[in-house]
Design goal:
single chain; mainly alpha; 3-stranded antiparallel β-sheet; 10 strands
């Protein structure tokens, strides 16, 4: 019995056929060329070895013939490079042009969208009664970032493919890979960029260079990101502002204070001008779509900081009208630079050092504080690292302000008149804030207990 079983297993092994053809990999009887980095550098892409996109697969004989031809091509190109007749880059570019002659590629579509779309350049579209505002700087930056993600995905495997070959199924696979590697937020951003790029390519302005938008055919929708709620404590906020001041960045301390005591978004704070400050308060006109004008009374701590900021800049030869100024460069804040500086100072406040987890110092940190002993400065000011600040973002100032207003006993109408939320949405928005802070639950139960004792 045992002997027979062993013979049967040996018989199957003897009958197995191994097919080995240079440059060809077989999977379930289907041949494919997997381009290595050396091949990709010469302009080759991985491909299924079949007749047409949906035709029959190559037979063994056809795969052998294909292999011989491809090996001859590679040898010819390498010989030309070795002889100095061309370069690897020129060879790759020539191969790409030959392969895609007359075809609009994804790279061409996206680059046309980024470089030729008037709205991406800050120019409105006006055609009769049709009006389209220029895209916000953050939106433009997001689209360009998503384009880089797509370009770098799997060494550009999809970047140079024909744009009209991008089907909903292919796009679903790309989005899945991006979500696995970069997270849900980046996958959603990439989908938005692709939809906008294909929409542009199908328009008159875009020259009708593509036939369809693959996003329209997606069967599965990406889940909505969970709302990020991070509320800073009083101790955390006092510490963060104090570290900014101690390290010579009172302008960032001013921005933090302005955010805490107006509950306004970063973009609205950075755009605020001196003329908007009146005897009755600060007049904000929110830039976000549907935003409304708000008049917010100024508290003493904020007024004192703004007066101090004005004194620091009194002898400047050129003064901008903005309330918040990048005092290192003596000009209004660029939002991109602002975020970088904010991250450096937050990290210093959290850990008392400029070094990240891997021991490196970012270029921005080196430029800003490279010669400063951060820990010594903080020790001299009586400040100890506060690790809980490591996950605090500038956008969290708005959440913190809303929660502090609620903890102070403000009604939803009072909160809405400061934050700019509509009354229709204030209940839905505040439930996230209220549900997260234990002090609100404690104060609520204390109120109920007080009522129970007095009610008869």
């Amino acid at each position: 019995m045992f002997s027979g079983s062993r013979l049967q297993r040996e018989g199957r092994l003897v009958g197995r056929v191994e097919i080995s053809i240079p440059l060809v990999t077989w999977r379930d009887g289907r041949p494919r060329f997997f381009a290595s980095k050396v091949h990709r550098d010469l302009g080759y892409k991985g491909e299924d070895l079949r007749h047409g996109k949906a035709g029959p697969w190559f037979t063994v004989e056809e795969a052998i013939t294909w292999s011989k031809n491809r090996q001859a091509e590679l040898a010819e190109k390498r010989a030309a490079i070795a002889a100095g007749e061309t370069t690897v880059k020129k060879t790759a570019n020539a191969a790409e042009r030959a392969r895609l002659a007359g075809v609009t590629t994804i790279s061409q579509l996206v680059e046309a969208f980024l470089d030729q779309n008037p709205r991406m350049k800050g120019v409105p579209i006006i055609d009769g009664k049709k009006r389209r505002k220029p895209l916000a700087a953050a939106t433009v930056r997001g689209y360009r970032g998503s384009a880089r993600v797509l370009e770098q995905l799997e060494d550009g495997a999809a970047w140079h493919e024909p744009a009209d070959d991008m089907t909903p199924e292919v796009l679903t696979g790309i989005l899945d890979k991006v979500e696995v590697k970069h997270g849900l937020a980046q996958a959603r951003a990439l989908r938005a960029m692709i939809s906008a790029a294909y929409g542009f390519g199908r328009s008159k302005v875009g020259g009708y260079i593509v036939k369809h938008n693959p996003v329209a055919g997606l069967e599965d929708t990406l889940p909505v990101l969970e709302p990020r709620i991070r509320v800073g404590s009083i101790a955390e906020m006092v510490h963060l502002v104090a570290v900014c001041d101690a390290l010579g960045f009172p302008d960032i301390g001013d921005s933090n204070t302005l955010g805490l005591y107006t509950a306004q978004r970063q973009a609205d704070r950075l755009a605020l001008e001196d003329s908007r400050i009146t005897s009755e308060g600060i007049l904000f006109h929110q830039r976000k779509k549907g935003g409304q004008p708000l008049l917010i009374p100024m508290v003493e701590i904020l007024r004192d900081r703004l007066v101090a900021a004005s004194k620091r800049r009194a002898d400047w030869r050129l003064n901008y009208p903005h309330v918040l100024i990048d005092e290192r460069l003596r000009r209004p804040w660029d939002d991109h630079r602002y975020r970088k500086v904010y991250r450096v100072l937050r990290h210093a406040a959290a850990f008392g050092t400029l070094e990240t987890v891997n021991g490196k110092v970012t270029r921005t940190a080196e430029q800003l504080l490279g010669k400063v002993d951060v820990r010594a400065v903080m020790d001299a000011a009586g400040l100890k690292p506060m690790p809980s600040l490591a996950d605090f973002h500038d956008q969290d100032l708005r959440d913190t302000a809303v929660t502090w207003l609620a903890l102070a006993g403000c009604t939803k109408w009072e909160i809405a008149s400061i934050t700019g939320h509509s009354l229709k949405s204030i209940d839905e928005i505040l439930k996230h804030y209220f549900g997260l802070h234990p002090d609100l639950a404690r104060s609520g139960m204390a109120r109920m207990e007080k009522w129970r004792r007095t009610a008869r």
